[in-house]
Amino acid sequence: MKRLLTLLAFCASVMAVQAKDYKLTSPDGQLTLSVQTGERLTYSVARDGVLLLEPSAIGLTLENGTVWGPGTRFSKAVRRSVNTTCDAPVFKRSTVKDHYNELCLKAKGFEVQFRAYDDGIAWRFVPAKAVTVKAEEATFAFAKDWKAFIPYVNQHTETLESQFFSSQEAQYTHASLSAWDKAYMAFPPVTVEADGGVKICITESDLLDYPGLYLYNGDGDCTLEGRFARVPAQYAQEDGKTFQRLIAARKDVLAENTSRLPWRTVIVAPEAKDLAQSDFVWRLASPNAVGDISWLKPGKVAWDWWNGWNLYGVDFEAGINTQTYKYYIDFASAHGIEYIVMDEGWAKNTVLNMKETRPEIDLPELVRYGREKGVGVVLWTIARLFEDQMEELCAQYSAMGVKGWKVDFMDHDDQKMVRFYRRAAETAARYHMFVDFHGAYKPTGLYRTYPNVLNFEGVYGLENMKWNANCDQVTYDVTIPFTRLVAGPADYTQGAMRNARKDNYRAVGDEPMSQGTRCHQLAEYIIFDAPLSMLCDSPSNYMQEEECTAWISAVPTVWDETIALDGQIGEYVVMARRKGSQWYVAALNGWEARDLEIDLAFLPAGAKATIMADGVNAHRAARDYKKSEVVLDGGKMKVHLAPGGGWVIKL
Predict the structure, then answer these.
(1) How far apart are CA 517 and CA 504, in angstroms?
(2) For strand 453-456 and strand 434-437, is the pairing parallel, antiparallel, or unpaired?
(3) Cα–Cα distance for residue pair 255/228, rounded to 1 Å
(4) CA–CA distance, 53 with 448 (Å, rounded to integer)
(5) Do 119 and 200 meet the contact criterion of CB atoms below 8 Å apart?
(6) What value does the mean pLDDT take over residues 448-476?
(7) 49, 353, 561, 588: which is deepest, by most CB within 10 A?
(8) Cα dihedral sign for 647, 443, 206, 227?
């Protein structure tokens, strides 16, 4: 009898974890997501029957030792299909189609949701109530040893743990998965090149109350595993000099008291260009939590810090003072630029006191003067101080008439910092202020949930031209449309009027230049997503280049339609954007001179258009460009791009 009971108990335990297979296909039937439960919970992905991801293990371990996923007996599988359209008022297109098939596996205390779209798959754990998470298993087992574009955390440290202190700015290493440098983690998005031109992009969405995802390959195989920062337990003693809030110790858990875990996303693109127009992260993010945003006005902003407050041809000493900022306001007003930003230095004490300005700045007068001229003022602050004084600062400066914040030096994405982002967005929205997160982790959909979050840095932007003589910015520029920008908008800060060839570029801190041609800079305003788009150079330089300045000033920053026309990662990209009835098309080139045939058949034949193109000598003098007027013939247009070049057409 005892043996019989033992056998029955054994059989029951086997049945409890017996493997069961589920399949979920995309609406167009091309992608197949296979889920297997049992001793492990795994998913795999195939496109047209070709395996892209082999069975990849996922699971959660709670603080009390409970394991979700592996060994779980799911009580119910619920399927549904959704096909709807969502408004996207501050985005690359005004409406987004949300069409997917979903499988929800339910168990005691939680469920796991899987979705299959035509352009990717996603999954997430959904707790029935708030939990504390000790560990997460999130793996991506690629079917072959393909090459990837890997943004390693850009500092070498003795431990991987210390790499969680990161502003997520790095250039890309193009290497096979098995050649992953074990000294480094990487931050998403990571894009992998599969067979037949297919691209796979790994990132996450709807990150609201959980640490951000990092990726690592410690085994030298084809599987990437998720890594996550633990909850801070103690911060270092703060002083009057350090901008960041430094972490002295961490707890042994990833997230405390959370019921909102993010989506893990696997975006699948038949061609590279499909990544450049992706809205996958936006679709999976939580809807607008702000409500009415009629007060919100995206636009362009004249920036002071990159050009070092350098003005010339004026009768006052330029610098951080009221006269200089009035000059910036005059420039912005004359060119239809909506904002100026007052960067580091306007406050009495950057680290300790931003409720008072330095003596040289009359901020109420600048806000009044800007209002008179139709130009809003944006203030820079550090996250450490803003976190402690958020309500008071928003109340004080919104009452004065300040329009938004550029919040800098977060440099973490643990749960506490992720919560800070959400609280900053929510608080600013209550005061009808927008936010530009600088020193930030990559976007994960917060810009949909809080549309007043206009930008994120998390990008190796043009500011690096001030100090890095060895970077390859041009190649980076034609890589990020297929990698970093898949996640969302970027505070890249383009618009340089001092342009250089690859061999004569040098880093100059106070009068910086860009790599690549003048038209490379112009094209970035169309290729890169940025609802708050900066003009990085000096007003004095822009006024010497009125033709280019007028072009930049006229470009919209949010769009009704976006179409990626062509491109290869790290080589070139061609995109079309529409705002109302006005079309812009742009091409951005890497370092190899290139001739393209761009299909403009979607534009009306007989329409007049203006072109800004690399000049015949742009390969010698990067600032050389040519403006011309054409009448479209409804067909293809031949375009020559200089090394590091660009091309734009406005209909």
Answers:
(1) 12
(2) parallel
(3) 10
(4) 29
(5) no
(6) 97
(7) 588
(8) positive
Q: Is the C-alpha dihedral spanning 164, 165, 170, 173 positive or negative?
A: negative
432-458 residue pLDDT tens: 999 999 999 999 999 999 999 999 999
- The predicted pLDDT at position 17 comes to 55
- Tell me how far the alpha carbon of residue 219 is from its chain's centroid: 29
**463 catalytic per annotation:** yes
The confidence score (pLDDT) of residue 9 equals: 42
Burial 305-344 (b: 16+ CB within 10 A, else e): bbbbbbbeeeeeebebbbebbbbbbbbbbebebbbbbbbb
The token pair that represents 309 in the structure block: 């407050």
Over residues 160-210, the pLDDT tens digits come to 999 999 999 999 999 999 999 999 999 999 999 999 999 999 999 999 999
CA distance 555 to 90: 15
Structure tokens at 313: 């041809």
Note whether 565 and 582 are within 8 A (CB): no
Sequence letter at residue 54:
E
Helix 383-400 / helix 415-430 crossing angle, nearest 10 deg: 0
What does the alpha-carbon distance between residue 208 and residue 345 come to, in Å, rounded to a whole number?
A: 31
Other Cβ atoms closer than 10 A to 558: 23
Q: Which one of the listed residues 136, 225, 463, 491 is annotated catalytic?
A: 463
Peptide bond into 189 cis (omega under 30): yes
**557 vs 306, 481, 560, CA distance in Å?**
20, 16, 10
Q: Which residues contact 389 (CB under 8 A, 6 or more apart)?
A: 354, 355
Between CA 378 and CA 295 the distance in angstroms is: 15
pLDDT exceeds cutoff 70 at 4: no
Under 8 Å between Cβ of 52 and 46 = yes
Strands (E), 305-410: 339-342, 347-349, 353-357, 376-382, 404-408
169, 338, 408, 413: the catalytic one is: 408
Which positions ≥6 away from 614 have C-beta within 8 Å? 517, 519, 624, 625, 626, 640, 641, 642, 645, 646, 647
Q: How are beta strands 353-357 and 646-650 bridged, if at all?
A: unpaired
Mean pLDDT of the region 88-114: 98
Pairing of strands 339-342, 376-382: parallel
One-letter amino acid of 450: Y
Q: What is the pLDDT of residue 309?
A: 97
546 noted as active-site residue: no
The span from the CA of 68 to the CA of 92, in Å, is 37
pLDDT score of 35 more than 50: yes
User: What whole-number distance in Å separates Cα of residue 556 and Cα of residue 93?
Assistant: 12
**Per-residue model confidence (pLDDT) at position 156:** 65
Residue type, 64: N
The residue length of the chain stands at 651
Average confidence (pLDDT) over 309-325:
97
Structural contact between residues 480 and 590, judged by C-beta atoms closer than 8 angstroms:
no
Higher pLDDT, 600 or 12: 600
Q: Quick check: helix, strand or coil at residue 39?
A: coil
Check: CB of residue 411 under 8 Å from CB of residue 166.
Answer: yes
For residue 226, how far is the Cα from the chain centroid? 19
pLDDT digits (tens, 9 = 90+) for 476-516: 999 999 999 999 999 999 999 999 999 999 999 999 999 99
Quote the tokens at residue 649.
Answer: 């057409």
Tokens of 636: 């293809």
| The pLDDT of residue 18 | 74
Q: Name, in order, each residue with C-beta under 8 angstroms of 162's C-beta and a sequence gap of 6 or more.
A: none
> Residue for token digits 């690096």?
464
Rounded Cα gap, residues 150 and 174, in angstroms: 6
